[in-house]
Structure formats: structure tokens, C-alpha cells
Specification:
The chain is of the alpha/beta class. Helices cover 32% and strands 26% of the residues. The longest helix is centred in the middle third of the chain and has 18 residues, at 227-244.
Length: 466
Amino acid sequence: MAFDIAIVNASIVVPKAGIINTNIAIKDGKIVEFTPDEVEANRRIDAEGLYALPGVIDPHVHYGVYTSIDKDAETESRSAAIGGVTTMMRMFRLYDSYREKLKTHLDASERSHIVDYGYHASILIPEHVNEIDYCINNGITSFKLYMNLKGKLGSIYMDMDPYTNKLITQNVNVDDVLVRSAIKTAAVHNALVLIHAEDPDICNLEMEKALEQKKDGLDVWSECRPSKSEHDTIIKISAWARENKCKLYLPHIGSSAAIDAIIDERNNGTELFVETCPHYLTHSTDFQNVIAKVVPPLRSKKDVQRMWEALRDGTVNCIGTDHVANILEMKRGDDDIWSALAGFPGIATMLPVLLSEGVNKGRIKMEKVAALTSLNAAEIFGIFPRKGTIAIDSDADIVLVDLEKEQKVTPDLLQSHSDYTIYDGMTLKGWPVITIVRGQIVMEDGQVVGKPGYGKFVARSTRSKS
């Protein structure tokens, strides 16, 4: 039997078992055999000196906001392939009915992705709570609540309608009534709720003070969205989650205060999953460039150190990038912290950052990288064992990485629609050299060879508690 692909001489990274040296046989998009023997295949990849990781899952990506999804899916999945990401999960924001518009977005997505993808549905209006079951029936089982959006801080860009080029802004009011209703309904369906944990009342008060004093800079932005607002919101939402036996996922955690609250609330019995982002591991407010404006903000160097500790001790479960596909001209605004857009690209640099600043600097091991970037997300979001592991019958989603490869980061290297990166000029050691999605090579030696439309929607299901 001739296999489609044979990966030979690889060091396979298995989070719970260590490093295994054997050959991998791939057929019809699946991993079908491990063997020390010679494998007959149409394509033989000699992975001597390379590590084979399960394809990276980025559970936190914003695209389709500043460019419509039919175009953005192609450019951002191209950037994903560069970074070894084989499944990307879109934070979908829609102010209209999901029943009316979801399938239009799914259809446009189907034609454009190079790698596989999933959706999280945002709950922004009361009607969305009543559409949770509709979303679940269409393969979406996770729902995001932006607790930072209320009152004066309620303005946000929605996702564009496919095949258009018009920005959509709305004022959103995610009040306690909406939050509690969504938590209760999601719990009934055994769905996962993602929480943007910031208190808008605290943040608005601090912003008004800073504006009156004409302050500016990343350090001011951090002061205006203090970690106390994260801490207090995590405590508040955890109590409601326990009341309803609802599972929570906390994205983009980057402060010591938030970690303290998470540890306390887990001890209180809340089922909490935690994500941090690469920028909270590499950048602090000392960076002082508006291109690094993000929500929640960058914090202090001590917070950066605390996040590495939280990776090692298991407090953090996943790495997500909070990738935003925007361009520099729009991002910078008037070059002040108030007019600059929040968010920046990062999907292509997630794995290189962890390899360079984590593994190669002795902060974490390769097994931890595989867990943080793939296995844990697959388990949390209900796509394991199809995704997230190198195992028999799993999708052949594999990234081969060279821990010794050094490259200077440039926007062109990352191949996103975005024309900038906070890592511009930084030399990272440890890069993906081959990305395989369901048995097809989509990136090799920095060249994307996958075609738009190859990537497939990863539908998920959940069992109701009722």
C-alpha cells in the first residue's frame, strides 16, 4: 500500500508522553500508521533534525472586520499557514440575526480559507441568546460575551457583510441582564462561554481622568484599563457561572491580578479555562509605540514574568493570538493612544515566539508548547481527537519545526493583509518549515502552496444537559 505522505526520522512531540522517534504514514487526510520501518509513499519528507508538532490551533482570531471575509479569509489563513496554524477560530461579531446572516458568512468562508477554521458566535443583543440553539445546530458551540462593552465604551466594529467593503460600527450594551441570560441558556446546552473580562465603568472613569490631564502612551492606556477591572469582572462572572454550572473560557489574560482571581475562582469551584497571548509574554508598556495598543492592554515587565510562570504551572491552558487583520495607516490613527485602533496581527508569529522565547530560552519544553498551542484547545473546544494530536485516525494536521532556524521578522515574511507587526526587526530562533493540513502540504520553506477553498469548516457539537 502506497501512502500519500511519509514523514520519516521526525521527533514527534506528544504532550503527555514526551518525544517519540518514529515514521508517520498519512493516507486520505488521516494519520494511519506509525512504524520504524521504511514507508512507501508518494511524497517522502525527511524530518531529520526537525520536531513534528500537532498542527497549531489558534482559538482567537479577528478577521472579516476591516476587509470582508471572502478576501480576509484568504490572506489571514495564508499567514496562519506560515506560522504552522492548521485551524483558526474566528471571533464572529454580528449585530443582526444569526438565522438571517450566518450561512452567508459560512458560504463565503468556505471558498476562501487555506487552512481549516471554526467560529465563535458573539452575544451582542438579546435576540442572540434565543439563537444559541440555532448556532449549535450549525456547528458553533462557543459564545463570546464582551463585558467591556457598555455605555460610553460600547462602540465596536462588527464583521463586514461578505463581498462588501463597508465598515460597520454599532453601540453595544452588554449589561448584566444580557450576560446572565446568555450564561443560563448556554449552560442548558452545555456550551462554552468566552468572557472578555473588563469592567467598563472602572475603565471609563480612568479614561476621563487621563483625557482631562492630556496623558498619552501605552503606560497610560494600561492605567486607564487597570488590571483591577479584569480581577473584579472575573470574580463577578465566576459566581454567575457557578450558579448555572456553566463552563467559562477567559481569553487574552495578561495581568497578575487576573491570574490571582482565576486561581481563587478555580478554588471556589468555577470551571475556568484560560488563554494568554504571545504579546503578553514578550511586550510590556515599555514598548511605547501605539502599534501595540490592545485590549486588555500590555502590562508591566513583572506581569510578563508572571504570565510565563502561569504557562509553566498550568494556570494558563491555551495560547491565542487575538490576531486583528488591519493595516498600519488605519491602526495608527493620529499617532496617539486615543485615536489608534486596538489590536494587531499575530497569527504567524505565535509558534515562533514560543519556540524562540520559550523553548530556546529554557522557559518551557516542547511538550508544553504542543499542549498550549494544540491539544488543550482541541479538548476545550470539542474537536479532539480529530484535531490537536498526532495519533492514528486523527486529521493529519502536522507542523514540522526547526528549532535552530533563525529569521528576522518582517511584515512581508508573515504574508498577512496587515502591513506591520510588533515583532518587526526581531530575530526569532525556531520556525515552522512545513505545515500540513489534512494530509496536504500548505506551506513549505516559507512558501504557501495551499489553495483558497481547501480549508474546511470544523463543525462542532454539544450534548444538551436537558
